[in-house]
Amino acid sequence: MEKKQFQAESKRLLEMMINSIYSQKEIFLRELISNASDAIDKMYYKALTDESITFDQSQYYIKVTPNKEDRTLTITDTGIGMTKEELETNLGIIAKSGSLAFKTENESKDGHDIIGQFGVGFYSAFMVADVVTVITKAFDSDQAYKWESEGADGYTIEPCEKETRGTEIILKIKENMEEETYDEYLEEYRLRAIIKKYSDFIRYPIKMDVSETKPKEGSEGEFESVQEEKTINSMVPIWRKNKSELTTEDYENFYAEKRYGFDKPLKHVHISVDGAVRYNAILFIPEQMPFDYYTKEFEKGLELYSSGVLIMEKCSDLLPDYFSFVKGMVDSEDLSLNISREILQHDRQLKLIAKNIKSKIKTQLQTLLRDDREKYETFYKSFGRQLKYGVYSDFGANKDTLQDLLLFYSSKEKKMVTLDEYVSRMPESQKYIYYASGESNERIEKMPQTEAVAEAGYEILYFTDEVDEFAIKMLMTYKEKEFKSVSSGDLGIETNEQNEDVTEEQKALFDSMKELLAGKVKDVRASKRLKTHPVCFSTEGEVTIEMEKILKAMPHNENVQAEKVLEINVNHEVFQSLQDAFTQDKEKLQLYTSLLYHQALLIEGLPIEDPIEFTNKICKVMV
Question: Which residues contact 161 (CB under 8 A, 6 or more apart)?
Fold first, then answer.
């Protein structure tokens, strides 16, 4: 019997294809089952065009049979089978696609679509098998044929006996090696797990003889192991069902079955698109943040299917980082089954799907915000920080997408509000959107810097997340209103105090204090924002004190510092003590200046350089 050579370019191409396209060896079973499903689909198409053929779906199935003794794994289908010429064409040329050609020639009818590209997927069998044997008998043919190959060296084809139409693929599983265990592909539990993982939604039954323990007939208390043929796959995916047939409970069950999370989803969206790109998707917005969400171990992405066959467990290209919390799946008939992560990144259809999904997620979040505020706030508590990271990242490229989804605590409303709600309440006299940053709402509430803004009757947004100010700096404005920190040098508020000029005596005092605090503050000046407190810091420049704290906590921080200005309340009793010390006791002025500076540090939650010296100075004042 003559051994024929592959027409594609030899062993190097075969090895390169197997190693680059498939990162996991278990994929081989997915590929062979998909090919078997294709063969049954072809029989279905044949029945559509030939009235003499009756397509009885109950007669069509795929069977997986492991044999540990012979070390073989057999995949059998009752599909259309192959002629000798088709064996030559489909299996003789690596990456030749019998299914793809068939799909091109036949329009999709009644929801039946050819899944794969036979040539490439078939050769994944050589990842786990030393020898691959194909026994096939084509529809309307009396002769069966046997195709056999040991890999890139070539293949043989010869006539053989086979009673029924269809194809058997017999894999002679490799012996175990030090770094690889091939025995697992003969284990019933492992094969069932692979089928459920990748091929659960193939539309035809995938059968296996399954071992079960049952009570032994005629004897009490004794059990025996019996084998029963069972269908392993679910067959009908939930996303292909009519939305009107499904309940919220159905979606929640699917969420739990797929192990998307231990919580219940806050919202789901079921998408069916039939346009420039065809796909179905079910997306979930979770209630709780995964425990590893902000760790490097967390992987974002949606499950990606091609006609019901899992291509990738986590396709990160389908979700932008700022929506990485979304769980779910996408199934498209327009994606090739044989596709690597590298190829996917440049896939036009995938980019279209990702764009549509991003738009759908935003719409669903806006709907949740508008129609169910309580649920949205639950979501925001878990994932609001991620939206703010999205505003800050990529130099603010996504700020227009995300700005209307942001919430901040309001000093007036005493609850979370949107930027739109804030702006809609602004009086005509108010120039800026005011915000204050701190560790908690309670601490911000007590900040001296908020006094002037609060007295003017203006609302203040409280920033308590470390990313808040960075995101707002990137956002810059909202509806043409600029953001302004209550610690900024110029608050844009007209007050009576602004008309009071600093006297020469006061100016000399502040210059003296500035000299005493040289290198620590940029300036010392009379405050226009303080009402009841004696002292506070304001800042000049882009870096605020909260930003300084966050940046200093980072590695390689390069000692970034805010330009601090020490502001003194000239209407406070303490100021009189300062003036007295300035004219009568320079040593006491130095003491008071140091205490006020450290008081401002404490108010901001900044560390005191020498706590012992500070406490000694307090004692000095007391005695």
Answer: 144
Supply φ then ψ for residue 320, to 5 degrees.
-70, 155
Task: Report the distance separating Cα 119 and Cα 116, nearest Å.
Answer: 9
DSSP-derived secondary structure letter, 543 = -
pLDDT at 111: 47
Q: Does 112 have pLDDT greater than 70? A: no
Q: Check whether 580 has a pLDDT greater than 90.
A: yes
Q: 3-class SS at 160?
A: strand
For residues 315 and 347, the answer to whether their CB atoms sit within 8 Å is no
Q: Which pLDDT band holds residue 437 (cuts at 50, 70, 90)?
A: very high
Degrees, nearest 5: CA angle 132-138-143: 90
Cβ-based neighbours of 569, under 8 Å, separated by 6 or more: 527, 530, 531, 532, 533, 534, 535, 575
User: What value does the mean pLDDT of the chain take?
Assistant: 88
Do the beta carbons of residue 311 and residue 353 sit within 8 Å?
A: no
- Residue 510 to residues 526, 586, 595, Cα–Cα distance (Å): 8, 13, 15
Token readout for 316 is 């990160």
Backbone angles phi, psi at 383, to 5 degrees: -125, 5
- Record the pTM: 0.78
Q: Are 284 and 265 in contact (CB under 8 A)?
A: yes
DSSP-derived 3-state class of residue 574: helix
In terms of residues, how long is the chain?
623
Q: Which residues of 42-67 are buried (b: 16+ CB within 10 A; e: fewer)?
A: bbbbbeeeeeeeeeeeeebbbbbebe
**pLDDT band for position 106 (cuts 50, 70, 90):** low
